[in-house]
Amino acid sequence: MARIAGVSLGTASNVLNNPEVVAGPTRRRVQEAIAKTGFVRSTAAHQLRVGRSLTVGVVLLDLANPFFGEMVRGAEGVLRDKGYVLMVCSSDESVDQERRYLRALEEHRVDGLLITPVERDLKGLVALSARGVPTVLLDRDPGGLGLCSVTVDDVRGGELAAGHLLELGHRRVGFVNGPLSIRQCADRRTGAKRAFRWAGLRPEDGLVEVTVPALTVDHGEEAVRELLAKKPRLTAVMCANDLLALGVLRGLAGAGVAVPGDMALVGYDDVAFASMLSPPLSSVRQPKYELGASAATLLLEEASEGAHEHRSVRFEPELVVRASTGSALRTVAGSRYRKARAGARPQSTGAVEGT
Ligand code: RIB
Fold first, then answer.
1. Fewer CB within 10 Å, N or C, the chain?
2. Distance 67 CA to ligand 1 centre (A)
3. Residues of the chain falling short of pLDDT 50
4. In whole angstroms, how far apart are CA 171 and each of 89, 168, 237, 325, 326?
5. Whose alpha carbon is nearest atom 10 of ligand 1?
């Protein structure tokens, strides 16, 4: 291409990497030669020269879950402007698959990694970071280890979902949750139990858990049979994410159970489809786009700073109330919960009317 343009390899390289230092007519001649020959730069060669691949690896739990897609969009919005390309992988909640992707991404010499880890033990990621791959945890607390992270207060989120149902007068609440080995599921359960205690109720009496192997639509639908078999009957269900809630909604419809008339329903994440369901789904909104954008910003800080101090950014969830939880009843336990919550956290109720 350089020969066709009649310039040196150095000038052709400058047109690709620092076009501002090449005179206009020369730059245009090289660009015409690129167009004419269909030249595409070799990333491997580029990375050897500058030691950077301008790629960032992203490993998520389940790419079929729109929660993660929205998070990736947030990260991409920040990284794209800096010339980075994302290599996005789904661990599908498999430790072995996660490890395979981490090895492959390191071999591709990614410049950084964003990950929602399956593995509880984060020492491997700390070692990866120490080998020169800046790593930021997405939606996972580092537990005191030397990694940057962005998280949402899932204990608060679980408490908001269960507290909302208690305020509506429900006393027998089903909770469709994933394995407690998934930190998000464990924290949401902790929050739901806190809401019952704040309402002066025993969680063991009123919070009826149904554990599913993975947070998918099918597992939500399969959980309905067990939910409907509970005695005394349940009048409300909260789900660990919106995919489960969609499956529960589908299963209840198949069983002729009306939402919210016979059963109130709350999801978690407030993904795009939540407001489009019939009835529109009440859900605990996570700031998905902001989580991804914030993680990417932390990654760029770590990659560019010599002496970097790891940071953990924490976001607050908010309850989005829509038709799937019906109208409010004023009950003694509901007002006890409201008073306890107000006393514990002097902030907004965390509830917004759903759009
Ligand atoms: O992957 C399971 C869940 O954890 C997602 O739906 C989202 O809620 C994340 O926090």
1. C
2. 7
3. 48-49, 346-349
4. 41, 9, 11, 14, 15
5. 184
* Residue 241, both tokens: 């994410």
Same fold, 51-152+289-315 and 154-286+317-344: yes
Strands 282-285 and 351-353, bridge-based pairing: unpaired
Give the distance from CA 344 to its chain's centroid: 27
Give the closest residue (by CA) to ligand 1 atom 4: 184
Sheet with 173-177, edge to edge strand ranges: 207-211, 173-177, 236-239, 264-269, 282-285, 318-321, 351-353
Domain boundary assignment for the chain: 2-41, 51-152+289-315, 154-286+317-344
- Ligand 1 midpoint to CA 16 (Å): 41
* Ligand 1 center–CA 96 separation, angstroms: 20
* 154-286+317-344 is a CATH 3.40.50.2300 domain: yes
Phi and psi at 330, nearest 5°, equal -90, 120
Q: Containing H/E element for 355?
A: none
Q: Residue 104 has what pLDDT?
A: 96
Residue range 13-35, pLDDT digits in tens: 788 777 888 888 888 888 888 87
> Quick one: fold of 51-152+289-315?
Rossmann fold (3.40.50)
The C-alpha angle with vertex 158 and arms to 152 and 160, in degrees rounded to 5, equals 95
**Ligand 1 center to residue 164 CA distance, Å?**
20
Q: Enumerate residues lining ligand 1, CB below 6 A.
A: 61-62, 65, 67, 139, 184, 215, 241, 268-269
Pairing of strands 282-285, 318-321: antiparallel
Ligand 1 atom closest to the Cα of residue 241 is 6
Each residue's pLDDT tens digit, 84-121: 999 999 999 899 999 999 999 999 999 999 999 998 89
Q: How far apart are CA 95 and CA 100, in angstroms?
A: 9
Whose alpha carbon is nearest atom 1 of ligand 1?
61
Angle at 121 between CA 115 and CA 126, to 5 degrees: 60
Q: Which two tokens stand for residue 229?
A: 């078999």
Query: Residue 219: which H helix or E strand, with range?
Result: helix 217-229
Q: For residue 41, what pLDDT is reported?
A: 60
